[in-house]
Amino acid sequence: MAGTVSSREVILPAIIAHADWGKDPRKRQMATARLAAGSNSEPRYLVNSLAPAAEAESADGGLLHDLRAEALPGQLMIGFDFPIGLPLAYASAAGITSFPEFLGVVGTPPWDEFEVVARSPDEIMLHRPFYPGAPGGARREHLRRALGLTETELRRRCEGNDAETLFWTLGSKQVGKGALAGWRLLAAAQQDPGIALWPFAGSLPDLLDGGSRIVAAETYPREYYQYARTPGAARTRWSKRRLADRLALVPGILAWAGSLGVGWDCRIRDRVRAGFSDGPSGEDEFDAVIGLLAMISVVTGALPPGEARDDQAICTVEGWILGRHASSASKTWRRALPLIAPVCKDQVALVPT
Q1: How many Cα neighbours within 13 Å face the side chain of 319?
Q2: By the 8 A CB rule, do 44 and 261 touch?
Q3: Of 255, 293, 250, residue with least CA distance to 275
Q4: Which has the closest alpha carbon to 167: 157, 158, 180?
Q5: How far apart are CA 145 and CA 301, in angstroms?
Q6: What is the pLDDT of residues 263-308, one digit of tens each?
């Protein structure tokens, strides 16, 4: 366990799930792990599912509803790799003081066009910031000028320079359209069955209390690839889209899971050993599992959560990526974020259910 563990205790979630979430519902994959009795009475998670993620909540159930039912009487924690939060400069200009509260008013005036992606520069405004609807002459400068914000101001402090800005919706790295779909799911879940967004609703010890609410957090699988690499392995050009490259990381993935006391359903283990599916969904399955192991690392104390609890902007508007340290955040922002120590005070002691 890294660093000093707080005397505060959490009850480990009965189920931890991680959804690799993009704009295309057909490529969304989710990995889940269930808390089980480990050797020597130590907490131990078993990765028991790797499957397509349900698209959204619905009247007869849905992704969060079904997972919560499986977790009861324990608690569910779920991670999504889309932004959960807004850039501070944008929120200030738009008069948004709470991201969770903002989710509840999207779709109502003056936010009734917020989810409609602007097709041309003259349609971009603070209440309609996503752009462009299609390629063809679109430039990032259009977005910056219309919103009156710089490239730096369009990023949250937790975002690395390799990630795309939230409101730009063009290209393979864009996250905006996936975020809009994810935010609809979170907004519905805030009503019923009830969801707590980390870090907005509190620290992990506050939220992981064994109650019935769902705890949701933002993840960024690329942040966690470092933990799946075999120590001493040569750094070469690598792509999660290539089966051969995923296969090269299999020993590291299994070793990482072993260090956490994580076991595998035999069918899931075989898929991991095969480098995941040899098709379009292989990279998404890979990210789903990487994100799941990262979440287990944080919950069990092997990694610090990462956010600064005494930074009001992070805990009300911007949010944070689970397990991301300030050193991984944008270099431009790093000087403005001295509050995150190498070991966060949000680290937790463990109480198995």
Answers
A1: 24
A2: yes
A3: 250
A4: 180
A5: 43
A6: 999 999 999 999 999 988 999 999 999 999 999 999 999 999 986 6
Which helix (H) or strand (E) element contains residue 31? strand 29-37
State how far the Cα of 260 lies from the Cα of 278, in Å rounded to an integer: 27
- Sequential DSSP letters for 44-107: EEEEEEEEEPP-S-BTTB-HHHHHHHHHTTS-EEEEESS--S--HHHHHHHT---HHHHHTTTT
- Cα–Cα distance between 243 and 224 in angstroms, integer? 19
Backbone φ and ψ of 66, nearest 5°: -70, -40
Tell the residue number behind the tokens 């010890």, with chain if given. Answer: 205
In the chain, the largest separation of any two C-alpha atoms, in whole Å, equals 64
Question: What distance in Å separates the CA atoms of residue 322 and residue 292, rounded to the nearest whole number?
Answer: 11
In whole angstroms, what separates CA 55 from the centre of its chain? 16
Nearest to 101 by CA among 197, 213, 211: 197
C-alpha 174/C-alpha 144 separation (Å) is: 16
Long-range Cβ contact pairs of 173-177 (< 8 A, separation 24 or more): 174/23, 175/82, 175/83, 176/117, 176/130, 177/23, 177/117, 177/130
pLDDT tens-digit series, residues 37-57: 665 656 689 999 999 986 544
The interaxial angle of helices 282-299 and 221-228, nearest 10 deg, is 80
Report DSSP state, residue 240: T
CA-closest candidate to residue 33, choices 348, 352, 295, 298: 295
Under 8 Å CB-to-CB from 353, ≥6 apart: which residues? 11, 12, 14, 35, 74, 210
Q: Which portions of the chain are predicted below pLDDT 70?
A: 1-8, 37-43, 54-61, 231-235, 307-309, 326-353
